[in-house]
Design a protein that fits this description.
By secondary structure, the protein is α/β, with parallel strands linked by helices. About 35% of the residues lie in helices and about 20% in strands. It has helices spanning about 20-30, 40-45, 60, 65-80, 100-105, 120-130, 160-165, 180-185, 215-220, 240-245, 265-275, 295-300, 315-325, 345-355, 370-375, 395-405, 430-435, 445-455, 460-465, 475-480, 495-510, and strands at about 5-10, 30-35, 50-55, 85-90, 110-115, 140-145, 170-175, 195-200, 210-215, 230-235, 255-260, 280, 285-290, 310, 340, 385-390, 405-420, 440-445, 470. The strands form 4 sheets. The protein has a 5-stranded parallel β-sheet, with helices on both faces. α4 crosses α5, α13 packs parallel to α14 and α18 (about 445-455) packs across α19. The chain is elongated.
Length: about 500
């Protein structure tokens, strides 16, 4: 069988992490990605940086491409020798055009594969705490096709027979269509006291669920102000939502939090926030780059036996140092006899993962505490210390170490570059702050503060953040913010990412 040229992949109902492992693998392989407009930008960012990204939906084109045009587009790209991923919202074969596109490819003799996705009619009720089936709630589940567009016409089904069923009904439909669907059920005999729920923006941090009896829901959705599509669930399983809701019960649910950390490092922080229900807004204000001149670090790596200590003040310093160490036939064994100090647990973890033992970690995870921690371990008089650090690192630590009698060699291991949102689909940070649509801003270093302020402008930054909770990972970062008139209201007792996230949770739990 020939290799597929087109991979029709279900992206799931919204949350970019709900794509399957196979679907994500194919997305990362694609030369061309043709996607529905509902597919999340974070998922598209997982494609190759050189992949051609084509929005086949209304968001980019105002008018959706005709279905035949999409099919021809897939075929044309495949004939060019490209590996094409057709990224479909939900599942390609559940109330979608995936089967029609696959049939067209079959008729054109173009090999294809189909990767299932989580259908909206299943995934969204799950995220709202409503099971679509339950042992005591009947033996049938009815899925009704709706439309996400502006139509107000109810689907063309036998509403009388549908209303007579006592089983669960699930329908994804637009805001203008929902009232007519409910009306069709009520006028054809479905009991007005039956439980129902409408879930908007399902599986996303902005998810909102309106529930009540079918009659109450009819009134509630017309006065809700919601303008988007929703999943309508009608049936007794809605009664279980108070006991089974989990997604919108998490401590940071719905909070929009700006993360200014370097994009290469932000993944863990973003994941922790998202797992607690927040909507992380990635606004990397710094980029980690190799040193302009790596010769001093390379040269230091050739004579590690001359040093008593190597002090690492960041995880970036560890990675840059190890990268240079293992070049030119050197390896970790070159560190034999050299003791290692890490500013905090995150930095220490990077060393431990390399199979290295960390001799000193100060109780207070900041540069100012390193000298005291080392003095408790050894006499620093005459001790030779290597400091592989950032190009903009403060002079506090080498000054303190030299005052204690140490011989310090400070080398640039990496540099930081000011950068702000620049990828396709990146948010307009200024507008989000101006419109008061941000719940918190996180700074993880003094350089993230400096570059964020540089991006917004000093006066604008102070004004825009005056009423926004600011979280700083430690006192040095908070002091950097204070210099620009930005007050830190959230600071953890331990200067680590997990502790910072815990401090955010405590803040929003108490407010």
């Amino acid at each position: 069988m020939p290799k597929p040229s087109v991979l029709i992949v279900g992206a799931g109902p919204g949350d970019p992490l709900l794509i399957s492992v196979l679907g994500l693998r194919y997305l990362k392989m694609a030369d061309v990605v043709v996607h529905d407009h509902l597919v999340h930008q974070r998922l598209l960012n997982m494609a190759r940086s050189d992949a051609e990204i084509i929005d086949a939906g209304a968001a980019a084109l105002k008018e959706s491409l005709e279905q035949d045009a999409i099919s021809f587009l897939l075929a044309d790209k495949a004939r060019e020798g490209k590996l094409v991923v057709r990224l479909k919202w939900g599942d390609p074969f559940v109330f979608d055009s995936g089967a029609k596109e696959a049939m067209f490819l079959h008729e054109q003799g173009i090999p294809f594969e189909v990767v299932p996705g989580i259908p909206a009619a299943v995934g969204i009720p799950c995220y709202s705490g409503v099971p679509v089936t339950y042992p005591e709630a009947g033996d049938a589940l009815v899925l009704v096709r709706g439309h996400e567009d502006e139509t107000s016409k109810a689907p063309n089904v036998d509403w009388k027979k549908l209303a007579d069923l006592t089983h669960t009904i699930v329908c994804y439909a637009g805001a203008n269509q929902l009232p007519h669907i409910i009306e069709s059920l009520l006028t054809n005999g479905r009991a007005p006291t039956d439980r129902a729920a409408a879930v908007y923006n399902g599986t996303m941090p902005s998810q909102r669920t309106i529930e009540g009896t079918l009659e109450e829901l009819d009134q509630a959705i017309q006065h809700s102000g919601e303008v988007g599509a929703a999943v309508l669930i009608v049936g007794s399983t809605v009664n279980l939502r108070p006991y089974l809701r989990w997604f919108d019960a998490r401590p940071l649910f719905g909070k929009r939090i700006i993360v200014t950390r370097a994009r290469e490092q932000a993944g863990d922080l973003v994941d922790q926030l998202a797992n607690l229900g927040a909507e992380p807004i990635e606004a990397a204000s710094i980029q980690i780059l190799p040193a302009d001149d790596s010769r001093p670090l390379d040269e230091a790596c050739t004579r590690l036996n001359e040093f008593d200590w190597i002090v690492f003040t960041s995880a970036n310093g560890v990675e840059a140092f190890i990268q240079h160490l293992v070049t030119d036939s050197r390896d970790i064994r070159s560190l034999k006899g050299v003791r290692l100090c890490a500013v905090g647990t995150a930095t220490a973890d990077r060393l431990i993962k390399r199979g290295l033992t960390v001799d000193v970690i100060p109780e207070e995870h900041r540069a100012e505490a390193i000298t005291g921690a080392l003095q408790m371990k050894t006499n620093l008089t005459g001790a030779r210390i290597l400091l592989p650090r950032a190009d903009i690192a403060r002079d506090v630590l080498p000054t303190q170490l030299r005052s204690a009698g140490a011989i310090v060699e400070n080398v640039t291991a990496y540099r930081t570059l000011c950068t702000m949102p620049e990828l396709p689909g990146d948010p307009d940070i200024y507008q989000l702050l101006l419109q008061e649509r941000i719940d918190a801003v996180i700074f993880t270093s003094a350089s993230t503060v400096k570059n964020f302020v540089q991006y917004l402008g000093a006066k604008s930054a102070a004004d825009l953040l005056r009423t926004v909770p600011v979280a700083s990972i430690g006192p040095v970062t908070a002091e950097a913010a204070q210099q620009f008139g930005i007050q830190t209201s959230i600071i953890p007792t331990k200067y680590t990412i997990p502790a910072l996230v815990d401090a955010l949770v405590e803040h929003f739990t108490q407010t």
